[in-house]
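Researcher: Let's continue the batch. This sequence belongs to Rhodopsin domain-containing protein, and it's 349 residues. Same format as the previous ones, please.
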Amino acid sequence: MLNGRSEAIVTATSVFLALSLVTVGLRCFVRARIVRAFGRDDWTMVAAMALNLGFAICTLVGCSYGMGQKMKDILPHPGYNRRALLCWWLGQVFYIITCVVAKMSIIISLLRITISRAHILILYAAMGLTLAVGLLFFFFTIFECKPVDYFWNRSTTKPGSCIDTDILIAIAYTYSVGAAVADFTIGILPIFIIWSLRMNARTKMAIAGILGIGCIASAAVIVRIPFIHSYKDPEFFYATYQISIWSNVEAGLGITAGSLTTLRPLVRFLRDGSSASRSHQRQPGSFPLSGNMPMPKGLSRRSKPEEGGEDSRRLWTGMADDEYQGVTTTVITGSHPTKRGESEESLTV
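Model: Same format as before. Here are the structure tokens for Rhodopsin domain-containing protein:
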């Protein structure tokens, strides 16, 4: 039973679920295969993706039972209203945990490269705010009704009661404002963190831009706020379709933004793979230096580039200590002026 607003919910959910799945999959490939440094932030983001998958499934199944529809279209189908309410309730639980865990992953990543004590305190404050408003909304959502299952069984003769809807709306507003503040913090602060690292300006601008995508997730939270009042609308499923859409957008964008920050090494990996054939074509009078070929006498290997600490180098360039020996530098003999080679350029891109 998909039509009208149900179709809009399904479309938005499917698009942002696919986007987050692709970026998390690429993140896992980069961190496990290229960088070989799968850390706590990566495991946390994988957990967030699993939770987001549960959220999306609840939304999609709920739409098949009437989410986004008017009651006159749902009531003729026995059991649909109950199942749609159950999917809504489960989806909100998954949504809250997904967003909190995704923010935790991003904050853990930033703490790994943060040097300034002030920046560290700000990140911990953002973490505390996220946990506080998340737990508040989480427990109010779960225990909105007494007994808990009365939320989706209220249309039956089963006895029970729910808290005043105005209280839940106030809690939802509190959560949304807190989430927006935390998102803006972890979206803007990286610009100042990256600028203190020893990287060239082009790299800093690229990384800061990617990290700033986190601000888009906060925009989704803000867009969602005006629709919170629809919780008390008699046509609950029909009126709250915007909440369903923007909740999925927020979760998907948060995971995508957090994963995009780890994909720079993938660009290097793909570029090096595409230029591998060219690297085997030696120019006359040139000597390729790598860990796989003997080094001519009198020539020394280039030292590792310094771009901040080891953690920041691995995070943004994707080159671990034992991978530098695979870098190929070509030395041209003769009287021509020395030019910067392609492989040297790749160290700083």
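Researcher: Any comment?
Model: The radius of gyration is 26 Å.
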